[in-house]
## 1
Amino acid sequence: MQIDRSPRSFLDTAVLARLAGVPLFARRPMQGNVSGRHASPHRGSSVEFAEYRKYVPGDDLRRLDWRAYGRSDRFYVKEFEADTNLRCCFVVDTSGSMNFGSKGITKIEYARRIAGTIGYLASQQGDAVGLACVANGVVHNLPPKRNAAHLRLVFDMLEHSKPKGETQLAATLHELAETIRQRALVIILSDLFVDPALLSGCFQHLRFRHHDVAVFHLLDPLELEFQFRRPMRFLDMEGGPSIFAEPNDIADRYQKALDAYLVEMTKIVRESAVDYHRISIDQSYEQALVRFLVGRAQAKGLR
């Protein structure tokens, strides 16, 4: 498969080369249209045995297990797992808060690196890649396809996405749960500035539609540690009113609210069986991707 050779600010060829040997696996059966490396909900031909079932007229006689017949005097047919490709759908939050970054990189830039790298690796193994940029709705949307020209369009959209406006992530995820065709690996990249109770319904909806859901929760170190030392004017990057405050007066309340939010988020993703990764954007995105890819490979080995 030919790939996009034009330079991209969010793609590092050295990182791509180091991650090339780690496959991207789905955690749930996928429905594709070509042979691939992901389990299918349908039976087919592969080297991995699935189960025996009783013979019914019309079954291929070549699939009869004569040893089982010799032991039981009944006809049984061997069934094997079918392998297929997957649809990988990135949902990138492009609301105003994603333009924040205190360590030389913003959350949207970090999201571009994660999505661009996974998208490249997925396309290299024959999977379809799509992208939805979301803020107060679906701003841009490219349904998944598996060709080099489409991957270039995905990269163009990713590169030119501009964070602005309010977030309506919960309503948008419900919309995407209904509009993404067939089963897909849905990878959400956002700071998740949403009520966790609302996100719980979104994750459950996506799972109900048989999507494999992964979430990269991107937070800036200042949001996690609140290391402000003098009076500051805090601006709402999504258009709300600004607040002038003395950090020492609000630090304890902020930390308690943050801790409660993170505890609730952890509870929700566990209940929803979401592949959740909380990341401080001053950390190496390559290491975050290694944990993501290796964790999925290990989960496939345990199935």
## 2
Amino acid sequence: MKKKKKIFSVLYIGACFLFFYLPIVVTMVFSFNSGKSLTKMSGFSFRWYESLVTNKSIMEAVYVSLSIAVLATILSTILGTVTAIGLSKNRKILKEIILNVNNISIMNPDIVTAIGLMILFSSLKMEKGYLTMLLAHVSFCTPYVITNVYPKVRKLDPNLANAAMDLGATPFQALVKVILPMLKEGIYAGILLSFTMSFDDFVISYFVTGNGVQNISIIVYNMTKRTNPTINALSTIVILVIILTLVLVNTIPAILRKKREKKEALQENINLD
């Protein structure tokens, strides 16, 4: 009976993985199709990747996606990290309120956030384009940084900064040389997650952009309205970028943790000697 349950569980999990990931595999395979068909493989070719590189509108979209993802990641990481550190110094009631508001931003449906930001920018009479998209991406990436960094802040000794300043460090030096290195795992996780969220965002970007400014997600959406195999090549590149980012999210904190443990073990051995 237990063996049958185990076989059923394996088959069920396998079917779920097949359902979720088979379309992605098919997309990647057909990105190397020499023909225009999206369902029939004619032969192996890099034709659509060459078409992708020579397509000016697509390359502009790639530039917009990458530049906004990088800038949004930098800005949201700074804002999120400073906010997480500041929260540790606030009263419990204020802290709980801010954290709950932060969680609402994460749980809020993208369409609601998109409409809200669109109305905000319209009420402020801001011309929709690159700047509004960047501000929107910063707004929804920052809560993820706070969520990743704040647990690390809670584990810190609250007297570390004071001890550093007693030893002659300025407040800025205490922050950069003492506090931030202790938070680097959470910061790295926030950076990678922010980049991923920004790079492949569609719903919010679609509502807050204008003046011909398009990121990769928007241009992929527009390409689906007509048969264009270049979409497979573009989608494959996006998938690979996201996979690489997810791998880094899972490996970098583990590597840093192992290095820290080795350093601590080495220090203990030195002290014992």
## 3
Amino acid sequence: MASNENRVALVTGSGKGVGAGIVRVLCRMGIRCLINCNSNPAMAEENLKRIREEGGEAFVFQADVSDPAQARSMTEAAVERYGRLDILVNNAAMQYNLFVDEYDEALIRKQWDINLGGYWRMIREAFPYLKESPTGRIINIGSVHGKRPTCFDAGYAMTKGGIKMLTREAALEMEPYGITVNCISLGGCRIEFKTGHPPFHSYRPPETRNPRMRPGVRLVEPEEVGHLVWYLCSAEAGAVTGSCIRIDGGQMLK
């Protein structure tokens, strides 16, 4: 653990999966973290227990990022506990794995309000504190589905495409305050399960497949994402902003 580290991070959707891996890495580096969960508080507490066993400092806060009041309360809780906020990692998302005609108005609005609205909402709430930090950082967790259509969840893909542009716009607006804003574009990651256990289906037209391509995709580990987040939080990454960095085990090449 870095003994001179005094920064504070808020990571949404960090009770399990990719978010859990991110907070574990940040805590090992000495960063104090707010672990956010919504539907799986028991898993968040397990992650907190593991972090504390490793000597890290964190606490759990249950909140729904689609609710403005809860987003604000969570941000304020991090500052009240630790006196500052230096890093925001937007990660909380819902993926329903539905085709275009399977969505209804209410469901797609809910997905947008979490996946894209939640990111915007948390940036808005964190900004007053991040601009007071000497090294303010925002990292938005995106997806390869924001670039490449895969024919299994148009709603999710649209939100991930929007996150890339939100990242670029926020990077421009926040540059005068020394806050960097970047996006990490994820491929398939090894996680426990997706919230709600959505069915998976994917149709890829045969003419888009290369029969000579060797099969298999290496899954990304959550803590590998955490190490990339750590780099983007470092002083060495101070000139990196408005970027989208892909970590997918070569998935986009296939």
